[in-house]
Amino acid sequence: MWDTHVMLLVYFIVFLIVGYFIARKLWYYPSPDAELIQFEQEQRIHCASVASDLVPRFEESVGAGSEFYVTGYDASYIEGDNGDYWFETLDKWVKKGCKIHYLIANERSKVPPRLQELSKKYPEKFKIHRLKTVGSDSEESDSKKRADSKKRADLIGRMKYWHPAFLINGGKLASAWIENYHAPGTDQAFEIDYYPPAVAAKSLTVKEAFDEISGLIDCSSGSNQI
């Protein structure tokens, strides 16, 4: 009798576990039509990753002449669990004719080997920008330059957790993905704002964020610094 009860309990637990994963799959993987509609809408996503969630939203818009700006604190994501797919996606996008700017906010971190590989393979199309603060109070005699240096340093400091990405087509913002909290060394980001093409092109928030990020490249430690 006891063995029968134990077996029934085991079957019930297995049933719950299998049911959970089936329900999870159905919830997270809707039909292609449902995904297409979803990707055309502005979204606030609680938890996501670039490989699983940014890529399918940007994929159809990436092509010849596109420019993709992506940011990270140390870019270690590409060496993590989802690194293979992220690496393959970046490689594929360059082959499609997209130019990629990869901004790394931690100037002391070593550029991940996979990013180095892409940079060496596509020196004109895959640019690594390892950011650093420039100037100091002693070096900057002009008050405006000091203020600009402080603003730059504050923005780079913010990028320890704040990671925006932008797609440009025809010189205009096509899509934006802004991770409001992504801790260093982790795969998952939280509270992400996604802006589809119809919204990104008109959003003042997206434009201001892009202007801040693209402005950092002009003074980075090298447009292809390894």
Task: Describe this structure as you would to a colleague.
The protein is of the alpha/beta class. Helix content is 44%, strand content 21%. The radius of gyration is 21 Å and the shape is globular.
How would you describe this structure in keywords?
226 residues, Endonuclease, Chain A, seven-stranded mixed beta sheet, 7 strands, globular
Give a short overview.
This protein is of the alpha/beta class and 226 residues long. It contains eight helices and seven strands; from the N terminus they run ααβαβαβαβαβββαα.
Strand order across the largest sheet: 1-7-6-5-2-3-4
Structural class: alpha/beta
**Globular, elongated, flat, extended or rod-shaped: what is the shape?**
globular
Helix content: 40-55%
Please state roughly what percent of the residues sit in beta strands, choosing from under 5%, 5-15%, 15-25%, 25-35%, 35-45% or over 45%: 15-25%
Q: Alpha-carbon distance between the termini?
A: 68 Å
What is the level-2 CATH architecture name of the largest domain?
2-Layer Sandwich
CATH hierarchy, class of the largest domain: Alpha Beta
**How big is the Rg?**
21 Å
Number of E-type strands: 7
Order of helices and strands: HHEHEHEHEHEEEHH
Biggest β-sheet strands, sense, barrel:
7 strands, mixed
Q: If you average the pLDDT, what whole number results?
A: 84
Segments where pLDDT lies below 50 for 5+ residues? 23-34
What's the number of structural domains? 2
Total DSSP helices: 8
Instruction: Write the CATH fold name of the largest domain.
Output: Endonuclease, Chain A
Oligomer: single chain
